[in-house]
Amino acid sequence: MNQDAEFGFEELQEELQKEILAEARKLYTDIVIDHAMNPRNAGEMNDADGYGQALGSCGDDMEIWLRVKNGTISEAKFWTNGCSTTIASGSVITEMAKGRPVMEAQKISQQDVLRALDGLPEEHQHCATLAANAMKGAVKDYIALKREPWKRNYQRR
Ligand code: FES
Description:
Layout: H1 3-27, H2 30-37, E1 50-55, E2 61-69, E3 72-80, H3 84-97, H4 102-105, H5 110-116, H6 125-147
Helix pairs in contact: 2-3, 3-6, 5-6
FE2/S2 (inorganic) cluster (FES) binds at residues 56, 58, 60, 82-83, 85-86, 124, 126-127, 130.
Protein backbone atom coordinates (compact mmCIF):
# COMPACT_ATOMS: atom_id res chain seq x y z
CA MET A 1 0.00 0.00 0.00
CA ASN A 2 1.47 3.42 -0.88
CA GLN A 3 1.45 6.45 1.43
CA ASP A 4 -1.47 8.12 -0.36
CA ALA A 5 -3.63 5.04 0.13
CA GLU A 6 -2.77 4.92 3.85
CA PHE A 7 -3.56 8.61 4.24
CA GLY A 8 -6.90 8.04 2.51
CA PHE A 9 -7.76 5.21 4.91
CA GLU A 10 -7.04 7.33 7.97
CA GLU A 11 -9.15 10.17 6.60
CA LEU A 12 -11.97 7.73 5.93
CA GLN A 13 -11.69 6.42 9.49
CA GLU A 14 -11.84 9.96 10.86
CA GLU A 15 -14.86 10.74 8.70
CA LEU A 16 -16.63 7.60 9.89
CA GLN A 17 -15.91 8.45 13.51
CA LYS A 18 -17.33 11.95 13.00
CA GLU A 19 -20.46 10.50 11.43
CA ILE A 20 -20.93 7.99 14.27
CA LEU A 21 -20.49 10.78 16.81
CA ALA A 22 -22.96 13.02 14.97
CA GLU A 23 -25.51 10.15 15.02
CA ALA A 24 -24.89 9.52 18.74
CA ARG A 25 -25.40 13.23 19.50
CA LYS A 26 -28.91 13.02 18.08
CA LEU A 27 -29.80 10.57 20.86
CA TYR A 28 -27.43 11.20 23.75
CA THR A 29 -26.06 14.17 25.66
CA ASP A 30 -22.36 15.03 25.52
CA ILE A 31 -22.00 13.81 29.12
CA VAL A 32 -23.45 10.39 28.23
CA ILE A 33 -21.16 10.09 25.20
CA ASP A 34 -18.14 11.12 27.25
CA HIS A 35 -18.81 8.60 30.04
CA ALA A 36 -19.67 5.84 27.56
CA MET A 37 -16.51 6.37 25.52
CA ASN A 38 -14.19 7.08 28.46
CA PRO A 39 -15.70 5.21 31.39
CA ARG A 40 -14.37 6.13 34.81
CA ASN A 41 -13.81 3.45 37.45
CA ALA A 42 -14.39 0.49 35.14
CA GLY A 43 -13.10 -2.84 36.41
CA GLU A 44 -13.15 -5.04 39.47
CA MET A 45 -11.75 -4.49 42.95
CA ASN A 46 -10.07 -7.02 45.21
CA ASP A 47 -11.10 -7.34 48.81
CA ALA A 48 -13.78 -4.64 48.58
CA ASP A 49 -15.65 -3.39 51.65
CA GLY A 50 -18.98 -3.66 49.82
CA TYR A 51 -20.10 -5.49 46.71
CA GLY A 52 -23.43 -5.21 44.89
CA GLN A 53 -24.86 -6.84 41.83
CA ALA A 54 -28.15 -5.99 40.13
CA LEU A 55 -30.06 -7.34 37.18
CA GLY A 56 -31.85 -4.94 34.85
CA SER A 57 -35.30 -5.40 33.38
CA CYS A 58 -33.57 -6.12 30.04
CA GLY A 59 -31.42 -8.92 31.43
CA ASP A 60 -28.17 -6.91 31.63
CA ASP A 61 -26.37 -6.79 34.91
CA MET A 62 -24.04 -4.48 36.78
CA GLU A 63 -21.62 -5.07 39.63
CA ILE A 64 -20.27 -2.38 41.94
CA TRP A 65 -17.38 -2.60 44.41
CA LEU A 66 -16.72 -0.07 47.17
CA ARG A 67 -13.70 0.73 49.30
CA VAL A 68 -14.67 2.61 52.46
CA LYS A 69 -12.33 4.54 54.73
CA ASN A 70 -13.63 6.11 57.93
CA GLY A 71 -17.20 5.84 56.70
CA THR A 72 -16.44 7.56 53.39
CA ILE A 73 -16.20 5.91 49.97
CA SER A 74 -12.60 6.25 48.88
CA GLU A 75 -12.87 4.10 45.77
CA ALA A 76 -15.69 2.70 43.64
CA LYS A 77 -15.54 0.36 40.65
CA PHE A 78 -18.17 -1.05 38.32
CA TRP A 79 -18.54 -3.69 35.66
CA THR A 80 -21.43 -4.37 33.33
CA ASN A 81 -22.32 -6.48 30.33
CA GLY A 82 -24.86 -3.82 29.29
CA CYS A 83 -25.07 -1.23 26.55
CA SER A 84 -23.20 2.06 26.30
CA THR A 85 -25.79 3.97 28.35
CA THR A 86 -25.38 1.36 31.09
CA ILE A 87 -21.63 1.94 30.96
CA ALA A 88 -22.25 5.70 31.21
CA SER A 89 -24.58 5.11 34.19
CA GLY A 90 -22.01 2.94 36.00
CA SER A 91 -19.28 5.43 35.27
CA VAL A 92 -21.22 8.44 36.54
CA ILE A 93 -22.65 6.75 39.66
CA THR A 94 -19.21 5.58 40.81
CA GLU A 95 -17.94 9.13 40.31
CA MET A 96 -20.88 10.46 42.35
CA ALA A 97 -20.22 7.97 45.15
CA LYS A 98 -16.53 8.68 45.62
CA GLY A 99 -15.91 10.99 48.55
CA ARG A 100 -19.44 10.55 49.92
CA PRO A 101 -20.34 9.08 53.29
CA VAL A 102 -21.20 5.46 52.48
CA MET A 103 -24.71 5.74 53.95
CA GLU A 104 -25.41 8.63 51.58
CA ALA A 105 -24.44 6.59 48.53
CA GLN A 106 -27.41 4.28 48.95
CA LYS A 107 -29.66 7.32 48.47
CA ILE A 108 -28.37 7.95 44.93
CA SER A 109 -31.51 7.38 42.89
CA GLN A 110 -32.26 6.69 39.25
CA GLN A 111 -33.28 10.36 38.97
CA ASP A 112 -29.93 11.51 40.39
CA VAL A 113 -28.09 9.42 37.79
CA LEU A 114 -30.31 10.76 35.02
CA ARG A 115 -29.67 14.32 36.18
CA ALA A 116 -25.91 13.74 36.31
CA LEU A 117 -26.01 12.40 32.74
CA ASP A 118 -28.18 15.29 31.61
CA GLY A 119 -30.86 12.77 30.68
CA LEU A 120 -31.22 9.48 28.81
CA PRO A 121 -33.73 8.50 26.13
CA GLU A 122 -36.89 6.95 27.56
CA GLU A 123 -35.96 3.43 26.45
CA HIS A 124 -32.64 3.63 28.28
CA GLN A 125 -33.76 5.10 31.57
CA HIS A 126 -33.74 1.65 33.14
CA CYS A 127 -29.94 1.65 32.73
CA ALA A 128 -29.81 4.38 35.40
CA THR A 129 -32.08 2.26 37.62
CA LEU A 130 -29.69 -0.65 37.22
CA ALA A 131 -26.76 1.48 38.38
CA ALA A 132 -28.70 2.84 41.36
CA ASN A 133 -29.76 -0.69 42.37
CA ALA A 134 -26.21 -2.05 42.13
CA MET A 135 -25.01 0.85 44.32
CA LYS A 136 -27.74 0.17 46.90
CA GLY A 137 -26.68 -3.48 46.92
CA ALA A 138 -23.04 -2.56 47.50
CA VAL A 139 -23.92 -0.33 50.46
CA LYS A 140 -26.24 -3.01 51.87
CA ASP A 141 -23.39 -5.50 51.62
CA TYR A 142 -21.05 -3.04 53.37
CA ILE A 143 -23.52 -2.73 56.25
CA ALA A 144 -23.98 -6.53 56.45
CA LEU A 145 -20.22 -7.05 56.49
CA LYS A 146 -19.84 -4.58 59.33
CA ARG A 147 -22.23 -6.76 61.34
CA GLU A 148 -20.76 -10.10 60.26
CA PRO A 149 -17.17 -9.57 59.10
CA TRP A 150 -16.50 -13.33 58.84
CA LYS A 151 -18.70 -13.40 55.69
CA ARG A 152 -15.91 -11.59 53.85
CA ASN A 153 -14.12 -14.91 53.46
CA TYR A 154 -16.60 -16.65 51.24
CA GLN A 155 -18.36 -13.93 49.27
CA ARG A 156 -17.40 -12.44 45.93
CA ARG A 157 -15.71 -9.12 46.56
FE1 FES B 1 -30.15 -3.01 29.59
FE2 FES B 1 -29.09 -0.63 29.51
S1 FES B 1 -29.34 -1.87 31.22
S2 FES B 1 -30.05 -1.69 27.87
